[in-house]
Specification:
heterotrimer; A mainly alpha (about 290); B mainly alpha (about 350); C alpha/beta (about 230); B: about 350 residues; mainly alpha; ABC transporter involved in vitamin B12 uptake, BtuC; 16 helices; globular; disordered N terminus; disordered C terminus; C: alpha/beta; Rossmann fold; 6-stranded mixed beta sheet; 5-stranded antiparallel beta sheet; 9 helices; 11 strands
């Protein structure tokens, strides 16, 4: 019994990380109707950038975020304004195929620069410390920090979208980019900022992921699928739904792993497919028609 | 001399499909076909195997193009059917004694049936999310098949020698049999797609692709049309997958459900020209011409491919064939109907 | 001084030509009406002025600045605001947020949230509801208020009366003189000829992408206008 409680708790904590993967993806789709296939590879890119920064500065992973977040923001802004803005429109082929091509470029560029070796970021004792709840039930400090970060991220995004001038501009542009222009909003700049924001979130998620587990240039697509599944399970258009979706995915994976280690990832996919069958719009969809 | 009243000139029109280019093209195509059929008699083993690969890659590309370029269903998970078709061939030849060559279309049919519940799942998603959903399905197959120990689990299974030998007695005979099968598959694929697009169904597809709303209001059943395309593509892709793993003589989950199948196919279709039959042919030629000299460069070759696809999609979304048709009105596979005006003399 | 001067404007949608050489001017403080049948090019013309449709002109001056080639968001920042056809409020924003976003450019001037609520008191009562949950007439008020929040010098109004009941249209049009009194120049596009004639200092009539008639309402006869409107 305790084992199962442990499984679920670990799953919830893992889900926090998945929710962070998903948050950036959800924002981009919400504002631009763009699904960025490079999303997972950019998470990996952030991890590698962090690795380089840490080697150069000797910072610990948390501190290096001060440098990595602005770098990823800038990459996101330039990626959007330099390439992706030109793919936006009614046809869904260009953004899909362009981001697919970019995914191949990024994966192989990372492979070329860093080899296929598995890497890991070190954060010291915090990686393994835990709080003992009861006999056989403990919560890792680092996974807990990850979950709390995810929750703060979602809260922060909610505040941004509902209370700030930029958030209003995001919402207006996502509703109707043409009329937003009539408000004096530079939609191209807004899209750039949105991608920059998404990649800033990706930076945090990538660094936390890289401390928690090994990474190498090829794991991007898997992270993309997790992010995507978390968004769909939670429901399009709902940030809290994305958090719940991530948690459900994490729990499903852990339950699968408990049954048989080889079933971990498969269990997550199956949970996604089940939700797709019984609730195609996700668990907490916004009523707005996308 | 009869007098003509200028006010009563009639305009007649006829619907024309073939172009002079297509008629010349037919001649060239015939000569090319005869040359290809004869290859096993004068080509060396490596060349024969290369052409088998060209044929099945091109056939896969045509199927993906039908689904995405004409059907508007962009799937990045067609490798699900490639692998399914491959495994199905192994299953029915090993366990049920079906002849190796006949197992190819039969695998296709079985997998087309399996595609029904899959369609039920993925059609719940639209647009970009549909694309990624198809990828998830492929991953489920990859992970799932790795768990089936009777099929070799994660390390896979080899085709028993008895079945290999049943294709033909000699190695050369087997190479030739597989070669001609592959040639037949790619010619059949292109022919069926061409005929499909020239038919009423093809016109419906083009209408849906151009405007779902408009075609709906004209009575085209969008959902049914898309479902039929999906099932047909599943059949074709699975049959080709069966062929592929017959030639490889060995199957494993990571080879069967590899995303690289889709990557290669997408590059070919995008760079060649999406939404035309000529485009993937041109794309395949370019792909294989580049691969021979460049594949030694591994990652740089893939970076080049990816960057090329990105640039083509940004600058010339109609692909290289699109550039050619802009300057020269060439259509080897005319699938549009054009109105030709004829005035009464 | 002319606050807007356009000479020989042409506009294209891809290969299709929509405007064939429109010339028009607005003096400061004037109310101009542009009338014409459906498809005459009125909306295209307004959208060209506001930068949403690519256009070319021998002259396209806003005060002393040339607007040719400028993006819509730059043109709004300069002081030309539009009340778009069909209102086009933002569903994700509340009524109040729809108004506030009109001032995204932060141009200085007299129009504030309070003044807009003064002009349209009904809106203050419903300020937290989603913009699109209101009736057609109320949405039109929000759209006008939203445009005013950018403190424009020129206000372009595209088919204010479209889809609205006559009594609502009257209500909306009583706001225009108040706006005009603040020194805002108005370019009003209308299919409803009577409203247009009632408020305009001068009118232009469009037909198939060209100006077919222009002049002061009291100097033009009904027959002249009908001929220019319908084309025969």
């Amino acid at each position: 019994m305790i084992e199962w409680a442990n499984t679920i708790i670990q799953g919830v904590l893992t889900g926090g990380l998945y929710a962070m993967f998903a948050a950036g993806l959800a924002i981009i789709f919400g504002i631009m109707r763009l699904v960025n296939i490079t999303h997972g590879d950019l998470i990996v890119l952030a991890a590698f950038i962090a690795m380089v920064v840490i080697e150069a500065t000797g910072f610990n992973p948390f501190l290096c975020l001060i440098i990595v977040i602005p770098i990823m923001f800038a990459i996101g802004y330039m990626l959007q304004r330099g390439i992706l803005n030109y793919t936006l429109g009614d046809d869904l082929l260009p953004p899909l195929l362009v981001t697919f091509g970019l995914s191949i470029v990024i994966q192989n560029a990372l492979l070329e620069a860093f080899s296929a070796d598995s890497q890991r970021l070190k954060a010291g004792t915090i990686e393994t410390s835990s709080i003992q709840l009861t006999d056989g039930l403990s919560i890792g400090i680092f996974p807990l920090i990850t979950l709390i970060t995810a929750i703060l991220m979602i809260v922060g995004l909610q505040q941004l979208f509902s209370l700030t001038r930029l958030g209003r501009a995001f919402r207006a542009t996502s509703d109707d980019a043409t009329t937003a222009q009539l408000m004096g909003i530079n939609h191209k700049h807004i899209f750039g900022l949105a991608m920059g924001l998404a990649l800033a979130l990706v930076a945090i998620a990538g660094v936390l992921m890289a401390v928690r587990s090994n990474f190498d240039p090829s794991i991007g697509p898997t992270k993309l699928l997790y992010a995507f599944e978390a968004v769909i399970i939670g429901g399009l258009g709902s940030l809290w739904g994305t958090l719940i979706g991530g948690i459900i995915l994490g729990v499903a994976q852990n339950i699968g792993a408990q049954i048989d280690p080889g079933w971990q990832i498969l269990a997550g996919h199956i949970a996604f497919l089940i939700v797709l069958v019984i609730r195609p719009n996700g668990l907490f969809p916004r009523t707005r028609d996308d | 001399m009869t007098e003509h009243n200028e006010n009563t000139s009639e305009i007649r029109y006829k619907v024309v499909r073939s172009t002079s280019a297509s008629q010349v093209g037919s001649m060239i195509g015939l000569i090319l076909l005869i040359t290809l059929v004869s290859l096993p008699y004068w080509g060396d083993r490596a060349t024969i195997r290369l052409f088998v690969e060209i044929f099945y890659i091109l056939a896969l590309a045509q199927m993906w193009n039908l689904l995405a370029g004409y059907g508007g269903l962009v799937s990045v998970g067609q490798q699900a059917f490639i692998g399914l078709g491959g495994y199905m061939l192994f299953i029915i030849t090993i366990n049920y004694g079906v002849g190796a060559i006949w197992a190819i279309p039969l695998s296709g049919i079985i997998c087309a049936l399996i595609s029904l519940p899959i369609a039920f799942l993925v059609f719940r998603l639209r647009g970009h999310y549909f694309a990624i959903g198809t990828w998830v399905v492929a991953e489920v197959f990859l992970l799932g098949f790795a768990q089936i120990s009777s099929l070799g689990g994660g390390s896979g299974k080899s085709l028993p020698i008895a079945i290999v030998k049943s294709i033909a007695d000699s190695r050369n005979g087997r190479d030739a049999a597989i070669y001609w099968t592959a040639l037949f598959v790619v010619v059949a694929t292109i022919t069926i797609i061409y005929l499909l697009l020239r038919s009423r169904h093809g016109l419906a597809l083009t209408a849906i692709r151009d405007s779902e709303e408009a075609s709906n209001s004209l009575g085209v059943d969008n959902f049914k049309a898309k479902l039929l395309v999906y099932i047909f593509a599943a059949f074709g892709t699975a049959a080709i997958g069966a062929l592929i793993f017959l030639t490889k003589l060995r199957i494993s989950p990571s080879a069967a459900f590899d995303i690289n199948w889709t990557t290669t196919v997408i590059f070919i279709v995008v760079i060649g020209g999406i939404g035309t039959i000529e485009g993937p042919i041109l794309g395949a030629i370019i792909y294989f011409l580049l691969r021979e000299p460049l594949s030694d460069f591994g990652t740089w070759y893939l970076i080049l491919l990816g960057a090329t696809a990105v640039i083509v999609m940004l600058k010339t979304p109609q692909g290289i064939w699109g550039i050619i048709t802009k300057h020269y009105d060439l259509r080897f596979f005319p699938v549009q109907r054009r109105l030709k005006l004829k005035s009464h003399e | 001084m002319n606050v807007l001067e356009i000479e020989n404007m042409t506009a294209f949608y891809d290969d299709f030509q929509a405007l064939f050489g429109i010339s028009l001017y607005i003096e400061k403080g004037e109310t101009i009406a542009a009338i014409g049948a459906n498809g005459a090019g009125k909306s295209t013309f307004l959208r060209s002025i506001t930068g949403l449709v690519k256009n070319n002109a021998d002259k396209f001056l806003y005060k002393d600045k040339t607007l040719t080639g400028k993006s819509a968001f730059d043109i709004v920042a300069l002081g030309i605001a539009m009340v778009p056809e069909g209102r086009r409020l933002f569903p994700s924003l509340s009524v109040e947020e729809n108004l506030i976003i009109g001032s995204h450019q932060r141009r200085s001037g007299n129009w504030t949230l309070e003044r807009v609520y003064q002009m349209f008191p009904k809106l203050e009562q419903r300020k937290n509801i989603s913009g699109t949950a209101l009736s057609g007439g109320e949405q039109q008020m929000v759209a006008i208020g939203r445009a005013l929040m950018s403190n424009p010098e020129i206000l372009l109004c595209d088919e204010l009366s479209l889809g609205l009941a006559p009594i609502i249209i009257k209500d909306i049009y009583t706001a225009l003189p108040l706006i005009k009194a603040e020194g805002v120049s108005l370019l009003v596009v209308e299919q409803d000829i009577n409203q247009a004639l009632a408020i305009a200092d001068r009118i232009y009539c469009l037909q198939e992408g060209q100006i077919s008639l222009s002049g002061k309402p009291n100097e033009l006869t009904k027959d002249q206008i009908a001929a220019a409107y319908f084309g025969r």
